[in-house]
Structures are given as C-alpha cells and as structure tokens.
C-alpha cells in the first residue's frame, strides 16, 4: 500500500518534472471553475469548492496509489451533498465527510479495494446517468437567469421551471449558451489547453464589460477569501454521528467507487497499474483533511485525471502542482474569481452532466442483456425519483441476485450435461 509518489520519486528526472509542472498548471485551470461550480450546485459556497480542490487534491496525489490521479470535488457528489446540506446544514456535511474519511481508511486497511469489481456495471451506469439528469435540471434556473427558490424534488422542479420561463433573462441564457459553445470548440481545436477556464473567463468578461443583468459569484456570494481557513474538528457528538451515519456511508461508497474507476481509466491511458488499497487510504485521508478545513467530500476525478494525462502528466507531482497552483490563485487573484458569471458556470456543469452520462456508450446499453438493461433503468429511475441510498441498495441487491441466478442456471446446465442418460 505504498503511495505511488514514493516509488516514482526514486527515478524522477528533470524532464518528468517539466512535464508535471505544465500538466499540473493546466489541470488547475480546468479544476478551478469546475470546483467552484460543483460547490455552488451542491448548496455550498465557491470558497468551499476551492478549499476542497487544494487540500484533497494535494493529499490524493501525495498519498494515492495512481501515478496520474487528480482528486477534488466531483459532480457525482452534488446530489448527496445538496441533500445532506438541506437536511442537516453545512456543519452536518462536514461531520459526514469526516466520518466518510474514517470509513475509507478502514476499507483501505482491510484491503477492500478489489470489492469495486463486484458492483454491477449496470448499477454504476444507471446511477451515473441518474445523477447527470439531476445535475442538468438543477442548472437550468441559473442558465436561464430565473430568480427565486426552486423545489428540490425532481418531479416538482420541472413544472416549477416551466411556470417560471416567462421571467427568464435573455442575457443569462446567451452567456450560458456561448460558454458551452466555446468549451466544445476549445476541446476540439486545442484539447491539451484549459479551454474551460478560457471559455468561462471570456463570457464572464463580456458580462463585466457590458454590465449585463447577469448574476456573478460576487453578487451572489460576496468576496472570496484570500487564504485557507484554520482547521477545526467537526461536531462528533454521539447523536450527530448516529443521524449522519447513513450519509457518511454513501459518501464513502461514492468516493471509493469513483476513485477506483478513475484510477482504472488512468491505467488504460498510461498502460499502468494502480494500487487500489493505497488509493482508498488516500481518499480517507483526503476527506478527513477536507472536512477539517470545512471542505466538501472529494474523490478521484475522471475528467481531470484524463486532462492530466493528455497534458503530459507523468507522476503524482503533477497533482501536487495542480493543488499548489489553485492555492496560489486563491492567494493572489481571488477577487477576479468573483467576476465569474453564474450562467457560465451552469453551462459548464450542463456539459459536465452530458459527459457524465457517456452518450457514446448508449448504443452498447441497448445491445446489452435484457437483465442488465432492466437493472440500469431501475437504478436510474430510483436515483432521479427517490434517493441515492435506496437506488444504490436496490441496484446492488438486484444485481447480486441476478448474478447468483445466472450462476445457478449455468450450474444446472452443467449438471444436466454431465448426468448419465443410459441408466
């Protein structure tokens, strides 16, 4: 369970360092607007997203089991975090994140890293698409410049958005749409460059220069801090732990699964092999660290990890550079982040939700076994219409039941084949 950083530094070269510095800065410029947007969508403030990217991003790279994994707040947590904040307050989320860190440490110590292979792929796919649907619908009000609170429930939110459409702000919609178009263009024309921050910066500059009636981070949340907060322990009273235990388990499950899936994707990209248990331990330490600084839950981020690889990142040093770059931005130019337009961040998250759903794989879902299709749809619907705990629990239970049934059918066929027929 030795961290990859310790082994890669034994043969570290100047060329690798130069590549890691360029990749780390590139990923930081991508991670900054994403972390802010994810935090806001989760019901937190932009500062909490930045703190999470710095603290958790540093710890995941320094202690993790992957050469190129980049950690921080991710879209998969938006629904969970928003639900915990709405029910227990932000201090409840901090406590749940701290507890999740402990759970992940225990999982890593007991070598549970290989268990992710037993989670049915159809459950992960349905769960991911369901989260993408929820994220996308949650961003429509800001994209359209709609004012006022919206219902949290998906079924209630859709008609509420429809009724509010006459009050939409055309300038906000134009900024959000332009941001999405620019992001797509930058990805195609210069995939190795941080097109996310450039696109959001351009459209936000248009808002500032022409004084458009569009909400920004500064108008909604005030000025951002220019330093990290002082660490402090969350509320760990018995009653608090008991009421937040189920939320902590869900956060730990999501952090473990997404980080290991991201590490496996990274392995394919670099022809490497990650250390799953070291990765779980790093996720545990990262979530403990993030909670101590008042941050959000964190995990390995597939999109940022892929950006790191495409930008030439070679070792965990790139992830450390990424965290230090975001810290430097916070300390030196934090006021500029206040000009970022809310519709631009919403457009960014809409594209993130689209990419989360992996539309290039939809065709393979339609060609999959009928049982896998049913499992995917059930998990998706439960994720969108009920809550994540029920969706994950039912999905895994049904998946295991289907797996046992298929094993039973195969065993029955084998027994029949080998039964003597001439007695």
From TrEMBL:
Signal peptide limits: none
Localization of this protein: Membrane
Membrane topology term: Multi-pass membrane protein
One Pfam family per UniProt: Sulfate_transp
Cellular component GO terms, alphabetical: membrane
Keywords: Membrane, Transmembrane, Transmembrane helix
A biological process term (GO) from this entry: transmembrane transport
Superkingdom in the source lineage: Bacteria
Domain SLC26A/SulP transporter: 17-379
Transmembrane domains' residue ranges: 21-41, 47-63, 70-90, 96-115, 122-140, 160-186, 193-215, 244-266, 324-354, 374-401
Protein name: Sulfate permease
């Amino acid at each position: 369970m030795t961290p990859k950083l310790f082994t890669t530094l034994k043969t570290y070269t100047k060329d690798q360092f130069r590549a890691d510095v360029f990749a780390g800065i590139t990923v930081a410029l991508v991670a900054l607007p994403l972390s802010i947007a994810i935090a806001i969508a989760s019901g937190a403030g932009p500062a909490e997203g930045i703190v999470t990217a710095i603290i958790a991003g540093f710890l995941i790279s320094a202690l993790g089991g992957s050469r190129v994994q980049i950690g921080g707040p991710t879209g998969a947590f938006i629904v969970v975090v928003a639900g915990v904040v709405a029910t227990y307050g932000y201090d409840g989320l901090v406590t749940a994140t701290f507890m999740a860190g402990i759970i992940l440490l225990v999982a890593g110590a007991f070598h549970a890293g290989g268990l992710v292979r037993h989670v049915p792929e159809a459950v992960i796919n349905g769960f991911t698409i369901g989260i993408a649907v929820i994220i996308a619908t949650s961003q429509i009000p800001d994209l359209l410049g709609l004012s006022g609170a919206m219902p949290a429930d998906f079924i209630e939110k859709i008609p509420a958005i429809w009724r509010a459409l006459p009050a939409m702000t055309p300038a906000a919609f134009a900024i959000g749409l332009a941001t999405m178009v620019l992001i797509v263009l930058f990805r195609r024309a210069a995939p190795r460059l941080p097109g996310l921050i450039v696109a959001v910066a351009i459209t936000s500059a248009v808002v500032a220069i022409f004084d458009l009636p569009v909400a920004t981070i500064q108008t909604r949340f005030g000025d951002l801090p220019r330093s990290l907060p002082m660490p402090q322990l969350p509320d760990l009273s018995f009653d608090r732990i008991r009421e937040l235990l189920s939320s902590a388990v869900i956060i730990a499950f999501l952090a473990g699964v997404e980080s290991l899936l991201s590490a496996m994707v990274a392995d394919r990209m670099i022809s490497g092999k990650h250390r799953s248990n070291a990765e779980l331990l790093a996720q545990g330490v990262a979530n403990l660290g993030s909670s101590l600084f008042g941050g959000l839950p964190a995990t390995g981020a597939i999109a940022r990890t892929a950006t790191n690889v495409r930008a030439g990142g070679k070792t965990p040093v790139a992830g450390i550079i990424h965290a230090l770059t975001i810290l430097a931005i916070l300390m030196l130019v934090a006021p500029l982040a206040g000009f970022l337009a809310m519709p631009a961040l919403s457009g960014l998250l809409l594209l993130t939700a689209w990419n989360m759903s992996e539309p290039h794989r939809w065709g393979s879902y339609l060609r999959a076994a009928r049982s896998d299709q049913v499992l995917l749809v059930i998990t998706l619907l439960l994720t969108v219409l009920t809550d994540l705990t029920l969706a994950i629990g039912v999905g895994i239970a049904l998946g295991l039941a289907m797996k046992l049934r298929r094993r039973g059918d195969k065993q029955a066929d084998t027994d029949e084949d080998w039964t003597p027929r001439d007695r």
